Structure formats: structure tokens, C-alpha cells
Amino acid sequence: MTVMQKIRSEYLMNPEFDPPKVAKASSAAEGLCKWIMAMEVYDRVAKVLSTLAHLCSTKIFPGIRICAYIYWLRSFSK
């Protein structure tokens, strides 16, 4: 099981893993909760961009403007 799979199954499925609820216990824990949630979103977006970039590079997806935009977005994830 990867780290992201563990995060999705153990933490994000837990109704108590909610920043406002966690903030009642600790402001530091609230920040970690938000960070973990943001990392999960980043992981999903990075996978989609990677797939789209692959399609652009293989010329299966001929949209030149969208491909340039995808490569620009991927530059932030490196």
C-alpha cells in the first residue's frame, strides 16, 4: 500500500479528519490536516497532468495550445 493509498483509506475516509474539528484540539494539527488534504489533491492532479502530457508527447492529443498549457503546469511540479 502506497502512502497516498493509506492517506485516502485511513485518514480522508475518517469523518473526524476535518480541519475545523481537528482545530479544536490543536492549531498545529489543523495545519497538518490541511496539508495532508492538499497533498492528496496534488497527487490526483499530478497524475492527470502526467497522463495528458504523455498523450501530448505521443501526438494522440493534437491540441497544441492545451499541450503547451499542460507542460507549463507540469513545470511547477518539478
What can you tell me about this protein's structure?
With 78 residues, this protein is mainly alpha-helical. It has helices at residues 3-11, 19-23, 27-57, 64-74. The longest helix is centred in the middle third of the chain and has 31 residues, at 27-57. The chain is elongated and about 50 Å long. It starts with a helix and ends with a helix. The mean pLDDT is 83.
Order of H and E elements: HHHH
Distance between the termini: 24 Å
Number of helices: 4
Give the C-alpha Rg: 17 Å
Helix percent band: over 70%
Beta-strand proportion: under 5%
Largest sheet: none
Low-confidence stretches: none
Give the structural class.
mainly alpha
Mean pLDDT: 83
How many strands? 0
Task: Give the overall shape.
Answer: elongated
Features of the shown structure:
about 80 residues; single chain; mainly alpha
Nutshell version of this structure?
With 78 residues, this protein is mainly alpha-helical. It has 4 helices and no strands.
Give a topology summary.
Elements: H1 3-11, H2 19-23, H3 27-57, H4 64-74
Helix pairs in contact: 3-4
